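Here is one chain, start to finish.
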Amino acid sequence: MKKNLILLFSAVTVISCGILFSSKTIMGDTSGPSAGKCGAPSDNFSNCTSCHNGTAATATGWITSTIPASGYIPGNTYTITATATYAALVRYGFQISPQNSTGVKLGTLVITNSTATKLVGTGKYVEHTSAGTTGSTGSHTWTFNWIAPAAGSGPVNFYGAFNCANNNGSESGDHIYLSTLSVNQCNVTAGIINSNPALCATDSNTLVASGGSNFLWNNGATTSTIKVLSGNYSVTVSSGTSCSATSSINILAPVCAIPTNDTATSIQSTKATISWIGNSCAAGYSVQVRSLGTTVWSTLSVTAPTTTKIVSGLQALTTYEYRVKTNCNAAGTISSAYSVIKTFSTPCSCGKPTAISVSGITSTSSIISWTGNSCAVKYRVQYRASGTTAWVTKSTVPPVTTYTLTGLLANTSYQYRMRTDCNSTGSINSGYTAIGTFTTAARMEEELQTVEVNKLIIFPNPTDGKFLATIFSVKEETSIICVRDLLGREIINENLPLLAGENNFDFTLENYPSGIYSIELKTAEGICTNKMIVKN
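Its structure:
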């Protein structure tokens, strides 16, 4: 054995060079050979025999790894094990290098035991240290890690040269071996696409995996296509062997849109209507309301596609805040943010007039009185003769809470009702009160005399059914005309507004049988009657 033992190692195919050791002194370089002694073709097959006698023999299986038979996966880390074996010997050395066929180093060598192994040749070779030359009698093992190169690097050869030394202080008796481990790249490449992205948060996404024939998703699915909601998903793809690859994807939930154009309308003293523009993904909406200056919201739920909500139970003369959000699932766990806070103010309470009374009743007039409220802009009084359908409407404005009805008919029953208007148009009002009644006073006997016949003139008379009633009135007033047959059955009953002077009204009895009919005109001045002959 030579005085200077050089251990040679190789790359892509791994080759180890041995070292010669002396029982008294170590005659060789026990710290390892120089770079390029692993027997690789790119190193001109240089190995340990350049320092030791003999011819290198080939050894099978001295370099092993955790790389699967299907090949390495780019970027993965694997453990490489180098083992030299020779019966009864106790000193060993090696050098290994991972290379391609042209000598380019592939992957990254990583030392896992710096006491026994080291890197040389700018990391292209791994070899023993001085402390790493001894082991069990008959064999010695070294381990290190290797990070697989980038995709497309192709096959990798681990070249190795080993020296099994007898430690006799000379070149004789050393045994040099070459061993090679060749591995291929795993060609499975995993990929995921979302072929049908969800439009709404509750819709499914369709994920499609590619790159192999076997699939295992992180949710346990084993098909190439799965339907899922938002979240993080990964799939391991294999080709039927241990060669596999993994891909992942993060599916974001579609945005649950905030309602737009939210407004408050139909605002009354105790209620208001909140409306908004929704969206097709909504399962429902949440409307929140609170009085200005408070912190607690009242939340009201609305089921889609409805986009309005009547908020009731409000207080008059109060400012309220409101906002709306979209719920994109029934539970409301997927929802938008709330819209920007807006406000509205309630008006006065538009209550109906109360304590209504009728006093000062004469044959032609009466006084209606009531108790109003501070929100009133106007009061409306309606009245009509009982048995008629048309209301006469009068109005007055606060603070007045009385109204005198004039031009009434004596001894006549009247109906009346009232309401409060809380804005100038009357669109906000209290609604009418229940109908009340009163009866005008009768005239004294001498006052109820029949008015001259020329005050009510019927033409033509006899008639074929159509006739003109001419009424002469001394003033503007309201009258009632009534036409009855001989049996007293009422045929016509109408309110007639009269102007001072001559008034003409057309009537027809064409659909009634021939006969004698009585006509009665009732005014504030009295009752005027006449008869008419109908010949159909």
